[in-house]
Design brief:
- The chain is 68% helix and 2% strand.
- With 403 residues, the chain is mainly α.
- The protein has one domain: Orthogonal Bundle (Ammonium transporter fold).
Protein backbone atom coordinates (compact mmCIF):
# COMPACT_ATOMS: atom_id res chain seq x y z
CA UNK A 1 0.00 0.00 0.00
CA UNK A 2 1.17 3.54 -0.76
CA UNK A 3 1.01 5.88 2.21
CA UNK A 4 0.69 9.66 2.22
CA UNK A 5 4.23 10.86 2.94
CA UNK A 6 3.05 14.26 4.17
CA UNK A 7 0.65 12.81 6.74
CA UNK A 8 3.14 10.13 7.75
CA UNK A 9 5.94 12.67 8.18
CA UNK A 10 3.68 14.97 10.18
CA UNK A 11 2.61 12.14 12.49
CA UNK A 12 6.24 11.13 13.10
CA UNK A 13 6.98 14.73 14.14
CA UNK A 14 3.86 14.79 16.34
CA UNK A 15 4.95 11.50 17.92
CA UNK A 16 8.36 12.98 18.70
CA UNK A 17 6.73 16.05 20.25
CA UNK A 18 4.56 13.94 22.53
CA UNK A 19 7.58 11.83 23.50
CA UNK A 20 9.35 15.05 24.53
CA UNK A 21 6.56 15.82 26.99
CA UNK A 22 7.56 13.07 29.42
CA UNK A 23 11.12 14.42 29.93
CA UNK A 24 9.49 17.86 30.05
CA UNK A 25 7.25 16.63 32.87
CA UNK A 26 10.35 15.31 34.66
CA UNK A 27 11.93 18.77 34.55
CA UNK A 28 8.65 20.44 35.57
CA UNK A 29 8.19 18.18 38.59
CA UNK A 30 11.92 18.12 39.36
CA UNK A 31 12.00 21.88 39.80
CA UNK A 32 8.95 21.88 42.05
CA UNK A 33 10.32 19.50 44.70
CA UNK A 34 13.12 20.04 47.21
CA UNK A 35 16.75 19.29 46.45
CA UNK A 36 16.74 15.91 48.23
CA UNK A 37 14.07 14.39 45.97
CA UNK A 38 14.82 15.75 42.50
CA UNK A 39 16.14 12.54 40.96
CA UNK A 40 13.42 10.45 42.56
CA UNK A 41 10.61 12.39 40.91
CA UNK A 42 12.48 12.59 37.59
CA UNK A 43 13.25 8.87 37.35
CA UNK A 44 9.57 8.11 37.89
CA UNK A 45 8.83 9.90 34.61
CA UNK A 46 11.74 8.43 32.69
CA UNK A 47 11.12 4.86 33.87
CA UNK A 48 7.53 5.17 32.67
CA UNK A 49 8.91 5.62 29.16
CA UNK A 50 10.72 2.29 29.34
CA UNK A 51 8.16 0.19 31.20
CA UNK A 52 5.24 1.49 29.14
CA UNK A 53 7.05 0.75 25.87
CA UNK A 54 7.65 -2.86 26.92
CA UNK A 55 3.99 -3.33 27.89
CA UNK A 56 2.76 -1.52 24.79
CA UNK A 57 4.79 -3.77 22.50
CA UNK A 58 3.83 -6.93 24.37
CA UNK A 59 0.07 -6.44 24.66
CA UNK A 60 -0.91 -2.86 25.51
CA UNK A 61 -1.43 -1.62 21.97
CA UNK A 62 -3.45 -4.70 21.17
CA UNK A 63 -5.71 -4.35 24.20
CA UNK A 64 -6.37 -0.73 23.31
CA UNK A 65 -6.74 -0.90 19.54
CA UNK A 66 -7.77 -4.35 18.36
CA UNK A 67 -11.15 -6.06 18.65
CA UNK A 68 -13.53 -5.43 21.50
CA UNK A 69 -15.95 -3.23 19.53
CA UNK A 70 -18.36 -1.70 22.01
CA UNK A 71 -16.53 -3.42 24.89
CA UNK A 72 -14.40 -2.33 27.83
CA UNK A 73 -11.13 -3.79 26.52
CA UNK A 74 -9.76 -5.13 23.25
CA UNK A 75 -8.20 -8.47 22.38
CA UNK A 76 -4.69 -9.82 21.81
CA UNK A 77 -4.72 -9.84 18.01
CA UNK A 78 -1.70 -7.52 17.82
CA UNK A 79 0.18 -9.03 20.77
CA UNK A 80 3.92 -8.47 20.15
CA UNK A 81 2.70 -6.68 16.99
CA UNK A 82 1.75 -10.02 15.47
CA UNK A 83 0.42 -9.67 11.94
CA UNK A 84 1.69 -6.11 11.54
CA UNK A 85 3.98 -5.52 8.58
CA UNK A 86 5.40 -2.60 6.63
CA UNK A 87 2.35 -2.34 4.38
CA UNK A 88 -0.28 -2.50 7.14
CA UNK A 89 -2.29 0.73 7.30
CA UNK A 90 -3.97 2.08 10.39
CA UNK A 91 -7.67 1.43 9.82
CA UNK A 92 -8.72 4.78 11.27
CA UNK A 93 -6.49 6.75 8.89
CA UNK A 94 -5.42 4.69 5.91
CA UNK A 95 -2.92 7.31 4.79
CA UNK A 96 -0.46 6.38 7.59
CA UNK A 97 1.20 3.06 8.54
CA UNK A 98 -0.05 1.29 11.63
CA UNK A 99 3.51 1.53 13.00
CA UNK A 100 3.18 5.30 13.18
CA UNK A 101 -0.17 5.23 14.96
CA UNK A 102 1.11 2.58 17.35
CA UNK A 103 4.13 4.74 18.25
CA UNK A 104 2.04 7.91 18.55
CA UNK A 105 -0.40 6.34 20.99
CA UNK A 106 2.48 4.78 22.94
CA UNK A 107 3.70 8.27 23.83
CA UNK A 108 0.31 9.09 25.36
CA UNK A 109 0.50 5.92 27.43
CA UNK A 110 3.98 6.87 28.66
CA UNK A 111 3.13 10.28 30.07
CA UNK A 112 -0.25 9.51 31.64
CA UNK A 113 0.89 7.47 34.68
CA UNK A 114 3.90 9.78 35.06
CA UNK A 115 1.48 12.66 35.70
CA UNK A 116 0.29 10.93 38.87
CA UNK A 117 3.74 10.92 40.49
CA UNK A 118 3.64 14.60 41.38
CA UNK A 119 0.88 13.91 43.89
CA UNK A 120 2.87 11.54 46.09
CA UNK A 121 6.34 13.04 45.68
CA UNK A 122 8.87 12.37 48.49
CA UNK A 123 6.81 9.53 49.98
CA UNK A 124 6.66 6.40 47.81
CA UNK A 125 9.19 3.60 47.37
CA UNK A 126 10.49 3.04 43.85
CA UNK A 127 9.73 -0.70 43.95
CA UNK A 128 6.12 0.00 44.85
CA UNK A 129 5.87 2.63 42.14
CA UNK A 130 6.99 0.13 39.50
CA UNK A 131 4.24 -2.28 40.53
CA UNK A 132 1.77 0.61 40.58
CA UNK A 133 2.87 1.69 37.10
CA UNK A 134 2.24 -1.71 35.54
CA UNK A 135 -1.10 -2.36 37.25
CA UNK A 136 -2.41 1.13 36.61
CA UNK A 137 -1.66 0.94 32.91
CA UNK A 138 -3.31 -2.47 32.56
CA UNK A 139 -6.43 -1.82 34.62
CA UNK A 140 -7.04 1.92 34.19
CA UNK A 141 -5.30 3.40 31.16
CA UNK A 142 -5.72 0.54 28.68
CA UNK A 143 -9.48 0.14 29.28
CA UNK A 144 -10.22 3.86 28.92
CA UNK A 145 -8.00 4.22 25.86
CA UNK A 146 -9.92 1.34 24.28
CA UNK A 147 -13.37 2.51 25.35
CA UNK A 148 -12.91 5.98 23.84
CA UNK A 149 -10.26 5.73 21.11
CA UNK A 150 -10.35 2.03 20.26
CA UNK A 151 -14.00 1.71 19.30
CA UNK A 152 -15.06 0.53 22.74
CA UNK A 153 -18.05 1.12 24.99
CA UNK A 154 -17.87 4.91 25.41
CA UNK A 155 -17.12 5.48 21.72
CA UNK A 156 -20.23 3.43 20.90
CA UNK A 157 -22.24 5.72 23.18
CA UNK A 158 -21.00 8.72 21.20
CA UNK A 159 -18.53 10.09 23.76
CA UNK A 160 -15.83 12.31 22.24
CA UNK A 161 -12.39 13.11 23.60
CA UNK A 162 -10.14 14.73 21.01
CA UNK A 163 -6.78 14.22 22.70
CA UNK A 164 -7.18 12.95 26.25
CA UNK A 165 -9.37 14.98 28.61
CA UNK A 166 -10.76 11.70 29.95
CA UNK A 167 -8.16 9.19 28.77
CA UNK A 168 -5.20 11.17 30.11
CA UNK A 169 -5.99 14.03 32.49
CA UNK A 170 -9.14 12.98 34.33
CA UNK A 171 -8.07 9.44 35.11
CA UNK A 172 -4.54 10.55 36.07
CA UNK A 173 -5.79 13.44 38.19
CA UNK A 174 -8.34 11.46 40.17
CA UNK A 175 -5.93 8.56 40.57
CA UNK A 176 -3.51 11.12 41.97
CA UNK A 177 -6.11 12.22 44.52
CA UNK A 178 -6.67 8.61 45.58
CA UNK A 179 -2.93 8.14 46.05
CA UNK A 180 -2.79 11.27 48.21
CA UNK A 181 -5.48 9.89 50.49
CA UNK A 182 -3.75 6.51 50.69
CA UNK A 183 -0.16 7.60 51.37
CA UNK A 184 -1.11 10.52 53.60
CA UNK A 185 0.77 13.72 54.26
CA UNK A 186 4.48 14.33 54.04
CA UNK A 187 5.92 14.23 57.55
CA UNK A 188 9.03 16.24 56.70
CA UNK A 189 8.69 19.79 55.42
CA UNK A 190 9.71 20.11 51.78
CA UNK A 191 11.40 23.38 50.79
CA UNK A 192 10.45 23.11 47.11
CA UNK A 193 10.22 24.48 44.54
CA UNK A 194 14.01 24.37 44.61
CA UNK A 195 14.49 25.54 40.98
CA UNK A 196 11.88 27.70 39.27
CA UNK A 197 14.03 27.89 36.11
CA UNK A 198 13.77 24.10 35.90
CA UNK A 199 9.99 24.41 36.21
CA UNK A 200 10.03 26.96 33.38
CA UNK A 201 12.10 24.64 31.19
CA UNK A 202 9.68 21.79 31.84
CA UNK A 203 6.69 24.02 31.08
CA UNK A 204 8.25 25.10 27.80
CA UNK A 205 8.83 21.50 26.76
CA UNK A 206 5.32 20.49 27.78
CA UNK A 207 3.72 23.43 25.95
CA UNK A 208 5.80 22.71 22.83
CA UNK A 209 5.00 19.01 22.96
CA UNK A 210 1.30 19.72 23.44
CA UNK A 211 1.05 20.83 19.80
CA UNK A 212 1.85 17.25 18.85
CA UNK A 213 -0.48 16.01 21.57
CA UNK A 214 -3.51 17.96 20.33
CA UNK A 215 -2.90 18.80 16.66
CA UNK A 216 -1.48 15.32 16.03
CA UNK A 217 -4.69 13.74 17.29
CA UNK A 218 -6.33 14.60 13.97
CA UNK A 219 -3.94 11.94 12.51
CA UNK A 220 -3.53 13.90 9.29
CA UNK A 221 -2.81 17.41 8.07
CA UNK A 222 -5.99 19.38 7.38
CA UNK A 223 -7.98 22.34 8.68
CA UNK A 224 -8.86 20.53 11.91
CA UNK A 225 -5.15 20.03 12.57
CA UNK A 226 -4.64 23.79 12.34
CA UNK A 227 -7.71 24.44 14.50
CA UNK A 228 -6.44 22.13 17.25
CA UNK A 229 -3.00 23.74 17.05
CA UNK A 230 -4.22 27.32 17.48
CA UNK A 231 -6.82 26.34 20.11
CA UNK A 232 -4.03 24.74 22.13
CA UNK A 233 -1.96 27.91 22.17
CA UNK A 234 -4.90 30.24 22.77
CA UNK A 235 -6.23 28.25 25.73
CA UNK A 236 -2.79 27.99 27.32
CA UNK A 237 -2.08 31.70 26.88
CA UNK A 238 -5.43 32.90 28.20
CA UNK A 239 -5.12 30.50 31.13
CA UNK A 240 -1.58 31.62 31.98
CA UNK A 241 -2.53 35.32 32.06
CA UNK A 242 -5.76 34.65 33.95
CA UNK A 243 -3.89 32.68 36.63
CA UNK A 244 -1.31 35.45 36.90
CA UNK A 245 -4.03 38.04 37.47
CA UNK A 246 -6.04 35.92 39.92
CA UNK A 247 -2.98 34.97 41.94
CA UNK A 248 -1.70 38.58 41.90
CA UNK A 249 -5.04 39.71 43.30
CA UNK A 250 -4.99 37.23 46.17
CA UNK A 251 -1.27 36.82 46.83
CA UNK A 252 -0.27 40.45 46.13
CA UNK A 253 2.60 39.50 43.82
CA UNK A 254 2.78 38.24 40.20
CA UNK A 255 4.18 34.73 40.72
CA UNK A 256 6.14 33.03 37.92
CA UNK A 257 5.16 29.56 39.13
CA UNK A 258 1.53 30.68 38.99
CA UNK A 259 1.88 31.79 35.38
CA UNK A 260 3.47 28.44 34.48
CA UNK A 261 0.87 26.44 36.40
CA UNK A 262 -1.95 28.36 34.73
CA UNK A 263 -0.65 27.50 31.28
CA UNK A 264 -0.64 23.78 32.14
CA UNK A 265 -4.21 24.04 33.48
CA UNK A 266 -5.32 25.63 30.21
CA UNK A 267 -3.54 22.98 28.17
CA UNK A 268 -5.13 20.17 30.16
CA UNK A 269 -8.60 21.68 29.87
CA UNK A 270 -8.52 22.32 26.12
CA UNK A 271 -7.17 18.86 25.33
CA UNK A 272 -10.54 17.07 24.96
CA UNK A 273 -12.04 19.94 22.98
CA UNK A 274 -9.16 21.22 20.84
CA UNK A 275 -10.43 19.91 17.51
CA UNK A 276 -14.15 20.29 18.18
CA UNK A 277 -14.67 23.91 19.32
CA UNK A 278 -14.12 27.42 18.04
CA UNK A 279 -11.08 29.45 19.02
CA UNK A 280 -13.30 31.80 21.02
CA UNK A 281 -14.50 28.78 23.00
CA UNK A 282 -10.89 27.68 23.51
CA UNK A 283 -10.10 31.09 25.01
CA UNK A 284 -13.10 30.77 27.33
CA UNK A 285 -11.98 27.27 28.33
CA UNK A 286 -8.54 28.64 29.20
CA UNK A 287 -9.97 31.42 31.35
CA UNK A 288 -12.37 29.10 33.17
CA UNK A 289 -9.67 26.48 33.69
CA UNK A 290 -7.43 28.95 35.46
CA UNK A 291 -10.16 30.24 37.75
CA UNK A 292 -11.60 26.82 38.62
CA UNK A 293 -8.22 25.09 39.03
CA UNK A 294 -6.85 27.96 41.13
CA UNK A 295 -9.72 27.66 43.59
CA UNK A 296 -9.61 23.85 43.50
CA UNK A 297 -6.02 24.11 44.74
CA UNK A 298 -7.09 26.69 47.33
CA UNK A 299 -9.77 24.27 48.55
CA UNK A 300 -7.25 21.41 48.57
CA UNK A 301 -4.91 23.45 50.76
CA UNK A 302 -7.73 24.38 53.13
CA UNK A 303 -8.68 20.71 53.47
CA UNK A 304 -4.99 19.83 53.92
CA UNK A 305 -4.88 17.26 51.15
CA UNK A 306 -1.18 16.81 50.47
CA UNK A 307 -1.27 16.68 46.67
CA UNK A 308 2.32 17.88 46.57
CA UNK A 309 2.46 19.19 43.00
CA UNK A 310 -1.26 19.82 42.48
CA UNK A 311 -1.88 17.00 40.02
CA UNK A 312 -5.53 16.72 40.95
CA UNK A 313 -6.09 20.48 41.00
CA UNK A 314 -4.50 21.04 37.58
CA UNK A 315 -4.90 17.82 35.58
CA UNK A 316 -7.85 16.18 37.30
CA UNK A 317 -9.99 19.30 37.64
CA UNK A 318 -8.69 20.79 34.38
CA UNK A 319 -9.38 17.65 32.37
CA UNK A 320 -12.79 17.18 33.99
CA UNK A 321 -13.72 20.80 33.27
CA UNK A 322 -12.52 20.48 29.68
CA UNK A 323 -14.79 17.51 29.02
CA UNK A 324 -17.78 19.40 30.45
CA UNK A 325 -16.81 22.42 28.32
CA UNK A 326 -16.69 20.18 25.25
CA UNK A 327 -20.22 19.01 26.06
CA UNK A 328 -21.30 22.64 26.11
CA UNK A 329 -19.25 24.19 23.28
CA UNK A 330 -18.82 21.48 20.62
CA UNK A 331 -19.71 22.84 17.19
CA UNK A 332 -20.27 20.82 14.01
CA UNK A 333 -19.32 23.82 11.89
CA UNK A 334 -15.83 23.55 13.38
CA UNK A 335 -15.56 19.80 12.88
CA UNK A 336 -18.17 17.75 10.99
CA UNK A 337 -16.83 14.62 12.70
CA UNK A 338 -17.71 16.03 16.10
CA UNK A 339 -21.05 17.07 17.54
CA UNK A 340 -23.04 20.09 18.60
CA UNK A 341 -22.98 20.79 22.31
CA UNK A 342 -25.47 22.11 24.84
CA UNK A 343 -25.01 25.71 23.67
CA UNK A 344 -26.32 24.65 20.25
CA UNK A 345 -29.23 22.69 21.66
CA UNK A 346 -27.75 19.20 21.97
CA UNK A 347 -28.37 18.31 25.61
CA UNK A 348 -27.94 14.58 24.91
CA UNK A 349 -24.30 15.02 23.93
CA UNK A 350 -23.68 17.18 27.01
CA UNK A 351 -25.08 14.52 29.33
CA UNK A 352 -23.07 11.79 27.61
CA UNK A 353 -19.84 13.71 28.13
CA UNK A 354 -20.72 14.54 31.72
CA UNK A 355 -21.66 10.97 32.56
CA UNK A 356 -18.52 9.57 30.93
CA UNK A 357 -16.14 11.89 32.79
CA UNK A 358 -17.87 11.20 36.13
CA UNK A 359 -17.55 7.45 35.55
CA UNK A 360 -13.88 7.87 34.63
CA UNK A 361 -13.13 9.95 37.72
CA UNK A 362 -14.98 7.58 40.05
CA UNK A 363 -13.46 4.38 38.63
CA UNK A 364 -9.89 5.68 38.54
CA UNK A 365 -10.16 6.96 42.11
CA UNK A 366 -11.64 3.75 43.56
CA UNK A 367 -9.40 1.38 41.63
CA UNK A 368 -6.23 3.31 42.43
CA UNK A 369 -6.97 3.39 46.14
CA UNK A 370 -7.76 -0.34 46.18
CA UNK A 371 -4.67 -1.14 44.11
CA UNK A 372 -2.38 0.77 46.48
CA UNK A 373 -3.93 -1.07 49.42
CA UNK A 374 -3.14 -4.40 47.74
CA UNK A 375 0.41 -3.34 46.79
CA UNK A 376 1.01 -2.27 50.37
CA UNK A 377 0.18 -5.82 51.51
CA UNK A 378 2.94 -7.12 49.24
CA UNK A 379 5.59 -4.44 49.78
CA UNK A 380 5.44 -1.17 51.78
CA UNK A 381 4.32 1.73 49.62
CA UNK A 382 5.38 4.59 51.88
CA UNK A 383 8.88 5.35 53.13
CA UNK A 384 9.61 5.80 56.84
CA UNK A 385 9.91 9.22 58.43
CA UNK A 386 13.66 8.69 58.80
CA UNK A 387 13.99 7.92 55.08
CA UNK A 388 11.84 10.91 54.24
CA UNK A 389 14.12 13.08 56.36
CA UNK A 390 17.24 11.90 54.52
CA UNK A 391 15.59 12.21 51.13
CA UNK A 392 14.65 9.60 48.55
CA UNK A 393 17.48 10.43 46.16
CA UNK A 394 19.92 9.06 48.72
CA UNK A 395 17.73 6.33 50.23
CA UNK A 396 16.18 4.90 47.08
CA UNK A 397 18.76 5.60 44.38
CA UNK A 398 22.06 6.40 46.07
CA UNK A 399 22.51 9.46 43.88
CA UNK A 400 22.42 13.22 44.31
CA UNK A 401 21.19 15.90 41.93
CA UNK A 402 23.60 18.45 43.37
CA UNK A 403 26.94 18.13 45.16
Amino acid sequence: MTFDTGNTGFMLVATSLVMLMTPGLAFFYGGLVGRKNVLTIMIQSFVSMGVTTVLWFAFGYSLCFSGGQGAVIGDLKYMFLSGVNLTTAFAGANSIPIWVFMAYQMMFAQITPALITGAFSNRVRFQSYLIFLVLWLVFVYFPFAHMIWGGGLLAKWGVLDFAGGIVVHTIAGFSALASVFFVGKRRVHDKGPHSIPLVALGTGLLWFGWYGFNAGSELRVDAITALAFINTDVAASFAAITWLIVAWSFEKKPKFVGLLTGSIAGLAAVTPAAGYVSTASAATIGIMASIVCYFAIYMKNKLQWDDALDVWGVHGVGGFLGVIALGISADLTMNPSGSNGLSLGNSVFFFKETFAVIIAAFYSFIFTYAMLWIINKVTPVKVSIQEEEIGLDEIEHGEHAYL
